Amino acid sequence: MTLALDRRSAPTAEAPTTHVPDRDLHAAAPVPRTSLGVLPLEYRFLSWGARFAALGLAWVIVERLLPIQGLGWLVVVAALCNLMLLAVGTLVIDSPIAMADRVAQWLFSTGAMVVFLALGSTLTFVFKRGWPALHHWNFFTQTMHTTLPDAPYNQGGVLNSVVGTLIELGIAVAITLPLGVGTAVYLNEVGGRFARMIRTVVEAMTALPSIVAGLFIYSFWILALHQPRSGLAGALAIGVMMLPIVARASDVVLRVVPGNLREASLALGASRWRTIWHVVLPTARPGLATALILAVARGVGETSPVLIASGYATFLVTNPTHGVMSSLPLSVYNSVIAPEPQAVVRGYATAAVLLILVLTLFVIARLLARPPSAKPSLRRRIRRSLTPTRPLTVEPGETS
Amino acid sequence: MTAHGSEDLLPIPRRVSRKPTGGDAVFVHGFRMVGASVLVITGGIAVFLALQSVPTLRHYGVGFFDVHQGWNFDTDRVSVASLLAGTVEVALIAITLAFPLALATALYISEYAPPRLQATLISAIDLMAAVPSIVYGLWGRDLIQPHAGTVAMFVDRHVGPLAVSGAPRTALLLVLVGGVLVGVVLRGVVGLRSHGARLPLYAAAVAAVVLLPVCLTVDADPNAANLAPQASSFQKSAFIAGIAVSMMVLPMACAIMRQVFSQTPPGEKEAALALGSTKWGMIRAVVLPFGKGGIIGGTMLALGRALGETIAVLLIINQVFIIKPNVLETGTATVSSTIAAQFGEATGIQLKALLTAGFVLFVITLVVNTLAAIVVSRSRSGDATS
User: CA of B34 to nearest chain A CA: how many angstroms apart?
Assistant: First the structure.
């Protein structure tokens, strides 16, 4: 032990060595922090002081010194002043290392706050602008077929777009779900050189911009095969865009199914197909559902494929193979570029409907992805409360 | 085991074969068919797009990539260069805005946020990714554009002239940019940690401090009042489109970064804290090096998404088919927005030109995504982010 240490340390005798710090025995004992979860008093004073001082300083700079005005500038300048005061203050009462820590914390918190404020402002802005049209029931039960764009909000609605979106999505999901999940099963459970090739191509095709997918359907399905612009073409465009996404996401989900579950099933004599149907897919079901729903949420909001392939109609179309069919994102786009202010408001209301649809899908995905809770379900709790309770003192060994 | 004594009764060992039989054969071949059909569909698109470029290039020749040419179907002089320039400008602006915000948000969620809030914030970021792009387009056009236009005008007036007029200010600006660049290279890439390596950074800081009052108070051009640009000439620009697109790609980058950060080995983090590191020191020494691959890969994936964004850009920009170095000024054109705007009137060779532009965009996106995948898979945090 000592020999090894000596041999190792011999060539680096001149290198800096570790010193035990000398403690000044006569110095006052450091006061231990009483509560580790809370910042010391001077730090709390500093952070609040920096905030108030920054506001005052920003007012002076914006209103009195510089030729810039407005609330926006005030906020920006106040934020910068706050950062500077915080940095200088920390440097005064502590070390540069602590200053870097405070500055980093400030930057990250502010960055996150900006992002969440932007998200909040997006959602509230759309709902607020669309509210005048949104709170009339006819917005969900009528179409714009016989309504002028500048008609009052108690006439007309977006039923055609809601129905069109749901039909197109249904067709797109009916195409992509079996193909995407089937491909993922093939990639994971069969494998081989051909599977690796498919995986490479599928991963590459996730890079396909959605507009190019729409243009492909337009020039192949509509121009080359002489099919009309229809809901089916729009669904195909969305499906072509979603297929690599679904296949790739399902592939990732299936990859994390534990291998020993498969091995256990195979060791019990199940065939490969039964293993997949009864073990792998049920294990991966929440993940697959989440992947699919997130892909659908992506597909429902894409405007460009339907803009090209499906077209826009103001009347209700329920036959996907028969002529142009409206959809929510395209309806938003067509309304907000219209010159009439009422049309723009209707566009915002349509965007709010689209957001509600996406939010619903998102919440369903979250609920499905949640790990199964240990709490018994509501139905079981109700049933249990209705049945007469058995004595709880019975030992587990005795009941059977 | 049973036939120890009699050699004759030794059972013939079962032939081990990996070849599927019975129902398994049906399963394997059926799923091979599914895989093959997906391969045909997805690969077919790429082949179709590539084939469409042949007549386009035959018709337009090398001029299809000519930087001096616009995109004009009426005069039949079409070059994808201006579209690509606009696309790259919008995507780079989006990434420049989204990268610091995504990094800050990811670090905040994984390191600073109170544990009770964490799950909610993660959901919020996922929700942000699911919001349709047209909503961000509306947000950018009607809520952000008036303010962003003002900021763009301010920057163009007060920062832009620095580079072209006033020798002292140009020198200060050069010192600022050069100092930061040299300092970052010395410290970050070469790895110098000595006092001398900090000097360029000090110089840059001094230049910035001197520059601030100069650029805010002294007006460069006495005729500036006459030449004062209108606020409207700073609307509908690549800059504002980039802001909207940044909102779209930010959650994607943020989700990948956060996922990588959350996989940092807790032992290493605790070791750094136990050695007396501050939280920021711990992040710099452990979390960021561990998540480097995820940071770069996530940003590049977001860049790939930003390149293909259509409808938000189409809502905001003013379509102009020339290469504009000044991104703050009105007017630009991206590949996807041009396709969306012009596919309806395009016929024959024009449609093929649009398809070829789409194919070029697809190839660029593919290259970016592939690089991102390579970076992520080579990093220590590895494959977990796929």
Answer: 6
